[in-house]
Specification:
By secondary structure, the chain is mostly helical. The protein is built from 20 helices and no strands. The longest helix has 32 residues. The termini are far apart.
Length: 360
């Protein structure tokens, strides 16, 4: 890398324009543009000014020792971890920031340690100063860092600090700034904030809405993956994803013991087919037995209205729109599916007895 490229990278990390950098360094915007496009280099006399502004060494400005920088930061954070003491952590990370004043990792780490002071200190002034400094560090990362992951981490830390100090509007502002890449953090942050705020009705509403969206997303991902693994004859993975999907459904069985039972029927038959492809008669028959047992359970419920999510799952989805229903089969005839297994099982007596039981 050359100095022009490094200046461009550092400027982007700091989230400033060429015009803003030019003003800080006392040069023209055209000069900055020429540096970054490698048309010319800064005068040697301005190197210390540029390095000081970005909080880096001149070596790093030239791209030297980049790996050393990253390793040094990791070593500083490890030393802080190993200290097992909040105040020692603050001391170690503060010293590290004097050496690497623009490190978002060190700023976020120090903000976390300072937030712990707010939890453990008995001195109100110390707690206020710790919170103030932690907020300042997080804000610096958010305002100057071009790495979304680092910014999201700082926003999460701000959310925690504001929640613990009762500033819920600020907490919400921080949550809503979290990027789409960290959408799960936004959900957890909102649930947490509403709990701190003791807005329990709103918390329940938001939690149920979010759980439904997450369930629906995971369910579809599992379904697509089981299909793909089966097509590609990667049967062990297909079975693993079928099992995971069923466990996901069973998470919501409380208050509704046959939640999405029609999918469970489908999953059992598909698993039976996979085991048939694998040549495993014992496991194939086990799935067929489950297939019939669940199908019979579904057939007991005769009305589509009984498959309403809000009614059937009051524990998890009482706030979900009553228009949302589960898959519903008015008639299920699993015995018609057995023909495709006859050749596979042949004269297997366990299968013959099972078929006789369910078809009589």
């Amino acid at each position: 890398m050359n100095i022009g490229t490094n200046i461009y990278t550092l400027r982007k990390e700091k989230k400033i324009t060429q015009a803003q950098l030019a003003e800080k360094l006392g040069v023209s915007e055209q000069a900055i543009s020429k540096w970054e496009n490698n048309q010319c280099a800064p005068d040697v006399s301005i190197f210390p000014v540029i390095a000081d502004y970005f909080g880096v060494s001149i070596d790093r400005l030239f791209g030297y020792h980049m790996n050393s920088y990253a390793e040094d930061v990791k070593a500083i954070m490890k030393a802080a971890d190993d200290s097992m003491d909040t105040y020692k952590e603050i001391e170690i990370i503060s010293e590290g920031l004097r050496k690497y004043p623009n490190s978002p990792d060190l700023k976020s780490y120090l903000a976390f340690s300072l937030s712990m002071v707010n939890r453990i200190s008995k001195d109100e002034n110390e707690k206020k100063e710790a919170v103030k400094k932690a907020i300042q560090l997080c804000t610096e990362v958010i305002d100057t860092c071009g790495d979304n992951k680092q910014v999201d981490s700082a926003l999460n830390m701000l959310t925690r600090i504001y929640n613990e100090t009762g500033n819920y509007e600020k907490a919400k502002e921080s949550i809503l700034k979290i990027s789409a890449d960290a959408y799960s953090s936004r959900i957890v942050g909102m649930v947490s904030m509403l709990g701190f705020k003791k807005s329990y009705a709103d918390q329940e509403q938001f939690a149920e809405d979010s759980l439904w969206k997450l369930y629906w997303t995971m369910s579809h991902v599992f379904e697509h993956m089981t299909h793909s693994y089966t097509i590609n004859k990667d049967y062990d993975k297909a079975i693993a994803f079928f099992d995971a999907h069923e466990k996901l459904l069973s998470v919501f069985d409380r208050g509704c013991s046959d939640f999405y039972a029609t999918y469970k029927v489908y999953a059992c038959e598909k698993k039976a087919q996979v085991y048939m492809m694998m040549g495993d008669k014992e496991k194939c028959l086990d799935e067929l037995k489950r297939f019939f047992a669940i199908a019979e359970q579904v057939r007991v419920v005769a009305k589509s209205s009984d498959f309403n999510i809000a009614v059937r799952n009051p524990m998890y989805f009482s706030n979900i729109s009553e228009e949302i229903g589960e898959e519903y089969m008015s008639s299920i005839y699993p015995e018609k599916a057995l023909g495709k297994y006859d050749a596979f099982f042949g004269d297997d007596q366990a299968y013959i007895q099972f078929k006789k039981t369910v078809t009589e």
